[in-house]
Design goal:
The protein is about 30% helix and about 20% strand. It is an alpha/beta fold and about 240 residues long. The N and C termini lie far apart (about 50 Å). The structure holds S-adenosylmethionine.
């Protein structure tokens, strides 16, 4: 038997993905306000998605309609605005941060939304284990954590392996809408999608969408704008 220092899996320059998969987030519970905690308790049965296996989306939403997935919705401000403005489609939000989920639940109730459901957990897990094939007409990834340090780039959500996970869950012609205020991540997103023949850039090859973006502003976006960042939007259609 080899000693731990001889075992290549223990070399410090190599992440041990068997023990701890590379995630796009760090669990930080944050403080739930009393209102958020009460909203989670009261409104989760109405809007929350709990499933051991593949989710029956028609049953979940009580109808058959096009479905939009919003990954990492933050406090849900933009997600609720989009769901309210687009009642013909169903919106599924996924977020790991409980205070954000609590905030979103309150706002969903205030808007009386029937076409919104929330999944509390990792989007990668949701896609891998719980979403049926060909079930999503659109996916939004607005201001994903940019993980600016090079050694953390592997934590970024948007990369080829993520697209491979996503594509089977999309309907033909589905739309992928990405936005970021982190220029270097924007260029990496662009390079990743332009290199993938399954996607057509709706702004033209190699181009970002011209402003203003066709979506509501988000909380993180406002923060970026206040810091003087430029916002980059990309929209692709699945061939
Ligand atoms: C920078 S914030 C942006 C939030 C929101 N989209 C906005 O623009 O205001 C990124 C969010 O993605 C969430 N997140 C990161 N990785 C995730 C994952 N794998 N699954 C679900 N949520 C994730 C984080 O908890 C965080 O709230």
């Amino acid at each position: 038997m080899s000693s731990p220092s001889e075992n290549p899996a223990n070399r410090s320059d190599r992440p041990n993905t068997l023990l701890r998969p590379t995630r796009s987030f760090v669990r930080r519970e944050g403080r739930l306000t009393r209102g958020q905690a009460a909203a989670l308790e009261r409104l989760w049965p109405r809007y929350g998605v709990e499933s051991e296996g593949v989710i029956d989306l028609d049953q979940l939403f009580g109808r058959n309609a096009e479905r939009v997935l919003d990954i990492g919705f933050g406090n849900g401000e933009a997600l609720v605005a989009m769901a309210a403005a687009d009642p013909a489609r169903d919106y599924l939000g996924v977020e790991v941060h409980r205070p954000g989920i609590g905030h979103c639940l309150r706002s969903a109730e205030q808007h009386g939304l029937g076409n919104l459901r929330l999944f509390a957990g990792d989007a990668v897990e949701l896609l891998r284990a719980h979403l049926p094939e060909r079930s999503l007409a659109a996916v939004h990834l607005f201001f994903p954590d940019p993980w600016p340090k090079k050694r953390h780039h592997k934590r970024r959500l948007l990369q080829p392996a993520f697209l491979d996970l996503l594509v089977p869950r999309l309907t033909p012609g589905a739309i992928l809408h990405l936005a970021t205020d982190w220029e270097e991540y924007a260029l990496a997103m662009l390079a990743c999608l332009e290199a993938d023949a399954r996607w057509v850039n709706l702004a033209g090859r190699g181009a970002f969408l011209p402003p203003p973006p066709p979506r509501p502003r988000t909380k993180f976006e406002r923060r970026g704008l206040q810091r003087g960042h430029t916002v980059y939007d990309l929209r692709y259609r699945l061939v």
